[in-house]
Amino acid sequence: MEFEAVIGLEVHAELATESKMFCGCPVVDSTQAGANVAVCPICSGMPGVLPVVNQRAVEYALRVALALECEVSTTSIFARKNYFYPDLPKGYQISQYEHPLARNGRLRIFTSRGEIIIRIRRVHLEEDTGKLTHVKGHPDNKTRTTHTLVDLNRAGIPLLEIVSEPDLHSAEDVRTFATSLRSILRYLGVNSGDMQKGVMRVEPNVSVRPLGRRELGTRTEIKNLNSFRALERSVDHEIERQVALLRDGEHVVQETRGWDELNERTFSQRRKEEEDDYRYFPEPDLPPLKIEADWLSTIRESLPELPIARLKRIQDQYGLSAYDAAILTNEQALADYFEAATEALPGVNPKTVANWITGDLFGLMNKVNLGIKKLQITPSALAELIRLVDEGEINQKTAKSVLAEMFDTARSAEEIVDTQDLRQISDPAVISEIVAQVLTANPEQVTKYLEGKQTLSQWFYGQVMRTARGKANPHVVKLELDRQLNEHKRAAADRN
Fold it and tell me: Is 342 within 8 Å of 318 (Cβ atoms)?
C-alpha cells in the first residue's frame, strides 16, 4: 500500500520591535545578554500589573498578514492560553484564539513539482515564553544532579504565529515553504530570520494516509525546529516512522515529539494537547484590538516589492534564468546589490553581473561567513571591475585576483590595476614578440609538436601567459600562437 504525507506548519516568528509585546522592557539578544536583564513586573507575571499592547508589533503583524494576502479582522481579541511551564511566569500566555488578527491567506511556493499555493489558516499575535537552560551536575558530584536555569529576557517578546493548512506533502514542500516565508519576513523588515538565535521556529504537524484517501491520519507535532536542515530531516524521518508503524499494523499516537539531531530521529515528549486543554478565555485586562481602515491602507501602501514579485520582475527585466533570479532575490539586500551593479553597467549583459556575484564574490564571502550588508565592495566598485574586463583592460584571471584584493582592502579596481601594473597586453606586436620568444626558447617542444603532439599547444599558451605575467589578452595570444605554429608547420613541410 502506498501512503501520502499530509503536513501543516506552525511558524513562530519574533517581531523585531525595540520593546516587548505588553510592557516597556527592551528586546535583547537572548543568546548574548546576561540572564534576566530585561525583566519587569509585567513580563515576569507579578500580581496586579496591567499589560499594554505594543502598536509597532501590531503594525509588523499586519505587514505580514497583508503580504500573505490574508483577510485582516477589523476587531481581534486577545485570550489567555493556560498551561504550566517553568519559563511561563504568569502561568498562561497572552495569545489570540477564536478571533485572530487575520485569516485565509496564501503563499505561493516553487518546488520540483512546480508552483504550489499553500493556504494560510491564520496569523495571530502572542507573547513569547522565557528560556530554560538545563545544566547537568558536575562530574565530581556523585549524585550527578541536573538543574534548570530560567531566563525571562525572552518572555513577553512579540511573537507572530503563522499557521498553514495541511497542504504540504513532502519534506521538500516544508523546507520551501519555510524558506519562502523567512524571505518575506526579512523583506518586510519584521524579523531577522536568524534561526540559530531562535527568532524563527517551525513546528510541522505530520500525518500520513493511504494514497487516494481523503480522511486525515493521526498527526504528530515536532516542536521548536530552528534550522532548515533539522526541519527537512525531521519531517522525512517522521513520515518514514509513521508509514512503518501502519504497515506493521500498529497505530500512530497523537503526541508532541522532539528532534534528536545527533541520532537523526524524532522522540516522544508528551501526548498532544487538544484546544480544550488550554482553557482559552478572553484576556480581561486587554480591550478588543480594533484596526482602522485608514491605518491598514497606509500599511498596505508601505509594503515593499516582495520576493516572488521581484523574482519574476528580475527574471523578465534582466533576462536571467529562474535559478539565478531565485538566488539573487532570496535576500532583499542582495537583490538591491545586483540591480545597482547592473544599472552602473549599461550595455553589459546582466548575466555577467549575476555570475560575478554568485560565483567569485559569493566564494570570498562564504570563506569568512560575511553577509552582503557588510561587504566592503560597493555595487559601483564591482561594476568598475567588470567594466575593466569587458573593455579588455584586464583579463578574467587578473580580475579574480583584483577582486580578492578589493574584498580584503576595499581599494578600487582601478587603483589596484594601476599600482600593480596589471593592465592587459593586447598589442598584437608585443604579443607576437612574446610568442616568438617562447617558441625560440623551446625548440625541443616545437619539434615534438610538429611530430604530432598537438597537446603541446596548450603548454606553449601557458608559457606565453607566464612570460607576460598573466597580463596578455588570451584571445590575441591564442590567435598569434596558432599563426606562428602554423608557420612552423609550413616551414617544416617545405624542408621535407
Answer: yes
Contacts for 164 with CB less than 8 Å, ≥ 6 apart:
8, 9, 10, 11, 107, 118, 119, 120, 121, 177
Cβ-Cβ contacts under 8 Å for 350 (sequence gap 6 or more): 318, 319, 320, 342
Both 262 and 213 in one domain: the answer is yes
- Same structural domain for residues 363 and 243? no
Same domain, 214 and 342: no
With helix as H, strand as E and coil as C, how does 384-398 read? HHHHHHHCCCCCHHH
Shared-domain flag, residues 258 and 328: no
* pTM of the complete model: 0.84
pLDDT tens-digit map of 72-114: 999 999 999 998 888 888 999 999 999 999 999 999 999 988 8
Q: Which of 419, 451, 469 is the last residue of a domain?
A: 419
166 closest CA partner among 10, 275, 272: 10
Q: pLDDT tens digits, residue range 365-380? A: 999 999 999 999 999 9
Phi/psi of residue 271, each to 5°? -65, 140
Number of structural domains the chain divides into: 3
Residue 347 and residue 448 in one domain: no
Average pLDDT, the chain: 92
Q: Is 303 exposed, middle or buried (0-12, 13-18, 19+ CB in 10 A)?
A: middle
The partner residues of 271 in beta bridges, in order of sequence, read 255
C-alpha 297/C-alpha 293 separation (Å) is 6
Going from the C-alpha of 113 to that of each of 168, 169, 170, 176, 189, the distances in angstroms are 12, 11, 11, 12, 30
Domain containing 281 equals 3-299
Reading the block at residue 139, the C-alpha cell is 562530574
| Residue 495 CA from chain centroid, whole number | 67
DSSP string for 15-63:
---SB-SSS-PBP--TTTSPTTSS--TTTTT-TT------HHHHHHHHH
Say yes or no: 88 and 103 in one domain.
yes
